[in-house]
TrEMBL record:
UniProt keyword annotations, A-Z: Membrane, Transmembrane, Transmembrane helix
Transmembrane stretches, start-end: 20-37
Full protein name: Transmembrane protein
Length: 70
């Protein structure tokens, strides 16, 4: 029966896809976390780029929110 064979193959491949989705979610979550931490710190490179091109000033100048200032 070809239908049962195709269903079996799909179920065998499902754990690999699930693991790939989990790893991708962890990677993207980590990337977003790093970006947010960088933006919340005045010394972060992303924060500097954002505020230079955005034309605004960091309201907590000289104060780092999450990490110690380097």
């Amino acid at each position: 029966m070809p239908t049962l064979d195709s269903l079996f193959r799909h179920r065998v491949a499902a754990p690999e896809r699930r693991m790939l989705k989990i790893l991708l979610a962890l990677l993207l979550g980590g990337l977003v976390t790093v970006m947010l931490v960088d933006l919340l710190n005045d010394a972060g490179i992303l924060a500097r780029i954002y505020f230079v091109f955005g034309g605004t000033d960091w309201s907590f100048a000289g104060q780092c929110i999450l990490l110690p200032c380097l």
